[in-house]
## 1
Amino acid sequence: EAGVAQSPRYKIIEKRQSVAFWCNPISGHATLYWYQQILGQGPKLLIQFQNNGVVDDSQLPKDRFSAERLKGVDSTLKIQPAKLEDSAVYLCASSSIGSRNTIYFGEGSWLTVV
Amino acid sequence: SQKIEQNSEALNIQEGKTATLTCNYTNYSPAYLQWYRQDPGRGPVFLLLIRENEKEKRKERLKVTFDTTLKQSLFHITASQPADSATYLCALSSGYSTLTFGKGTMLLVSP
């Protein structure tokens, strides 16, 4: 079974530029998550989708972050404009409705804002 | 406010010994608690889940305990190996809410 796919793996941008990350969840997983993990911290949930609807985006900085999950499969996370403090790993994860408790993570997209 | 605390200092042990990691929480009533392993440059990997009505769960060399009175979970790795070296994350959910993660504890197992 293929895991959660993310791209790009690494990205370096200047502050005020924009960046987009892509995620393809495990086939059949209805729930998709985007987490932000700053170095030395645990993952922090940014947004959770169930199919193509948003379940929780309470910690998403909506003035600069946006995410969408068209057709309930792939998802993109966009940051515009980026700030230095956005430097982090952006982890996409997915889970099935029948087993919400187990979350499968991708390898992450590493963002450095300079 | 809700807090999940894990030892911020790395735990150094010798191969063959039992590693014990601690997860404490406050202002939380979790329905279940999970442990994940994270290797450098990789995403977290699910290890074990324990529910609020369970005291202990085992999987091969791993054992998790959950004490809702003490608001604490202990994660044990018996007969530890250098390959067990990683960061271990504790995560809690109240059941309907999403998972909240601790900062993790780094485990270093020396040969």
Note: DSSP finds no helices and eleven strands in chain A.
## 2
Amino acid sequence: GAGVSQTPSNKVTEKGKYVELRCDPISGHTALYWYRQSLGQGPEFLIYFQGTGAADDSGLPNDRFFAVRPEGSVSTLKIQRTERGDSAVYLCASSRGSSGEMEQFFGPGTRLTVL
Amino acid sequence: LAKTTQPISMDSYEGQEVNITCSHNNIATNDYITWYQQFPSQGPRFIIQGYKTKVTNEVASLFIPADRKSSTLSLPRVSLSDTAVYYCLVGDGRGSTLGRLYFGRGTQLTVWP
């Protein structure tokens, strides 16, 4: 079956612009996660959805970052007034269950470059 | 969640067995140990998970001593395609952590012909 998909695969933008990154989880997966990965580092947790609600958004670095999942499936990560430090690969993952599910299925990521 | 420590890099040759050890001295009673693998330009992929003793699947084995303060991921007869970053994660994901994963910097395994 289809895995987690993310679009776009690459996004180049200018400092100060607004960007949206999309994640399509595996069908039927109720939990969805966003991570950010900088070069040479492991993924860093941003936010976790259980259904439509954000169960844990403590990893979002500041209020320029926001994510939604209005129908409990597709999610969009939104970044306002982008800064060069936001450049990274943004990974989305989904899992079947909620807090008990350690196996998360990751998408290929969106590489964001802020010039 | 317990902090983990693992080597930054390892080298091996095709056909050899590779063992990557991870230290997690502050592991909690209800913590599981999970390993993920990541290839360049891809998201991490779950390899194996265990709580104690030994776990084996079609890809790898996971050895956990009685004190659970460390674990060893064993990859039998590696091939070039096993070149990747391997992450050791500790946490229960079944309570207050709500399933979020904490990755360290991982171990870059390079397999040579």
Note: The radius of gyration of chain A is 13 Å.
## 3
Amino acid sequence: IAGITQAPTSQILAAGRRMTLRCTQDMRHNAMYWYRQDLGLGLRLIHYSNTAGTTGKGEVPDGYSVSRANTDDFPLTLASAVPSQTSVYFCASSDSAGGTNGYTFGSGTRLTVV
Amino acid sequence: GQNIDQPTEMTATEGAIVQINCTYQTSGFNGLFWYQQHAGEAPTFLSYNVLDGLEEKGRFSSFLSRSKGYSYLLLKELQMKDSASYLCAVMDSNYQLIWGAGTKLIIKP
């Protein structure tokens, strides 16, 4: 089934630890995105990639890094987790940056930093 | 700054019609999107408007007025499964989506 796979589904992480959230898509979409969703706030863009080999910073990039070595994979790394990074993280993709067919979202990773 | 406003919560009755409003102020405009998000799930794409007017898609319709910075999502013949949050998002001049906080729609029998 075409779509986006995120792993893990949920995680409890000790503060100060490093963690990578995985995201893989099989739709050959050029653009990919990482968002965090917190109660009462809209989805906030962390990092994005318009095409393989390029990445850009979103609205809330501090404490996070990404890479886009190929079209399918877009991992998000927390170098040293802090409690304020407790959130639900969604990976999304679109056929192109500025695409009008909408984004496809993964099922999310619920991260708790303690 | 960029801002998307939509009501926090709305309640409607099964079988009725509900209109969810969204107003926006963004740096540039390249279209407005509506998404549906059931609790604990990912958002799913509902509609896209870039020109003024009404776009109808089954029980759901979306309206846009660019001069007023305004859109609404109209849901007809409400069903219990329509209970969800509805997210308004505007694509700005950099082709990035700016998201509203979402409207939680509660459907009562």
Note: The two ends of chain B are 40 Å apart (CA to CA).
## 4
Amino acid sequence: DTGVSQDPRHKITKRGQNVTFRCDPISEHNRLYWYRQTLGQGPEFLTYFQNEAQLEKSRLLSDRFSAERPKGSFSTLEIQRTEQGDSAMYLCASSSVGGQGTDTQYFGPGTRLTVL
Amino acid sequence: AQSVTQLDSHVSVSEGTPVLLRCNYSSSYSPSLFWYVQHPNKGLQLLLKYTSAATLVKGINGFEAEFKKSETSFHLTKPSAHMSDAAEYFCVVRAWEAGNNRKLIWGLGTSLAVNP
């Protein structure tokens, strides 16, 4: 068990470009979450998968954002036509449903996006 | 409705002295509670969790927290602060909603500074 990994760790892009981030969850975790975190704030929920099904999307997730988890393992988060306001840390977490439905989430190191 | 309040946005202690980070929650149901730590430019690490078992929960790095239902509190403590404890700490409650038990409610965070 190597933990949740994310790639890349840092991304600098120009406004209007598309970017894609990858998350590899802890093996056998069936739930995967994406969050966004800006400086000095806690994480904001973006979306969540159970296996390959995307079960919920936050209103924060505009049409420019799309996430996939095609085989129920790794996930990608794509941002199209990036804006400066998209600059943030994008965090991925995974979990599996345990006793009493505790569903403890374990986080990756994050991808820091800077939009110039 | 569920909520979580971290009572201090910043806490400063001297190395070797006790740490107390305060958290109060509101939940209509028996909650699951978590503390996460985030070091600068790093991802979130689970410190400890309460899931309706023992009310005194021991976590990593010498931290512990006590669930007090009568006070709706889940304060984080450590007997002796170390320089490496300087970080942002988040108190989190799992919100139980009809048919949906995965939503995390995040506190705004407490920044812990440890002075030599």
Note: The first strand of chain B starts at residue 3 and ends at 6.
